[in-house]
């Protein structure tokens, strides 16, 4: 039953009607509204007495199947919250440009959604190893973790000269693995094997992806 006062006939709008609506909405506004709605429905991250930091991954992707008026593919730069699995913001990269100028507008949108970037860790690829990016995040109390490569030769040389071999690395002891023997159930029946087939017993390691499969061979047929 429809609620009182509902005069709709229950029909679903056609895909073209929805498309005409979406192309008239500001993409950034829609992205922020959806991000806030998803965050309101996401379960809070349980710290369980441990200190944790919000990590946001910034990465650029080319949208498959989306084209601009001149035929170019749509290139987006997105900010992904690794704790909730929500894309907080995304901006379209301008034609004849790259991801570097889009980094600052993207982080401004992220700050609008979160309210603050204090203590947030931004993870990006080597392209974003830029002094301007680091200064921007430092002003807002955030942190930047990137890979240093040849696009920053001075930083790369300084990091390469550090005594990395002397840095202690903590390792956890490996979990012991024990071998067990379990009977393999035939695939044809859950109660008893089909006549003429055998179901041998195989060994498998505990913790493996699944039970070992037996190579079942048909029994020899008696000639009449």
Automatic annotation (TrEMBL):
Residues 53-153 form the Transposase IS4-like domain. Residues 213-224 have a biased composition (Basic and acidic residues). Transmembrane segments: none annotated. This is ISAs1 family transposase. Pfam families: DDE_Tnp_1. InterPro entries: ISAs1_transpos, Transposase_11, Transposase_11-like. Residues 172-224 are annotated as: Disordered. It comes from Paractinoplanes hotanensis. It comes from the Bacteria.
């Amino acid at each position: 039953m429809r609620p009182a006062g509902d005069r709709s006939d229950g029909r679903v709008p056609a895909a073209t009607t929805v498309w005409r609506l979406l192309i008239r909405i500001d993409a950034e506004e829609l992205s922020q509204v959806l991000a806030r709605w998803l965050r309101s429905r996401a379960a809070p991250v349980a710290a369980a007495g441990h200190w944790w930091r919000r990590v946001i991954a910034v990465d650029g992707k080319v949208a498959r199947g989306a084209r601009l008026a001149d035929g170019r593919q749509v290139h987006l730069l997105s900010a992904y919250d690794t704790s909730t699995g929500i894309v907080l913001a995304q901006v379209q990269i301008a034609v004849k440009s790259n991801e570097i100028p889009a980094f600052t507008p993207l982080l401004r949108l992220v700050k609008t959604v979160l309210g603050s970037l204090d203590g947030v860790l931004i993870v990006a690829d080597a392209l974003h190893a830029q002094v301007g990016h680091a200064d921007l995040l430092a002003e807002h109390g955030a942190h930047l973790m990137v890979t240093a490569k040849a696009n920053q030769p001075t930083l790369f040389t300084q990091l390469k000269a550090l005594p990395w071999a002397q840095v202690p690395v903590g390792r956890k002891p490996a979990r012991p693995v024990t071998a067990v023997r379990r009977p393999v159930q035939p695939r044809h029946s859950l109660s008893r094997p089909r006549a003429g087939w055998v179901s041998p017993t195989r060994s498998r390691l505990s913790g493996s992806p699944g039970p070992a499969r037996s190579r079942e061979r048909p029994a020899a047929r008696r000639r009449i």
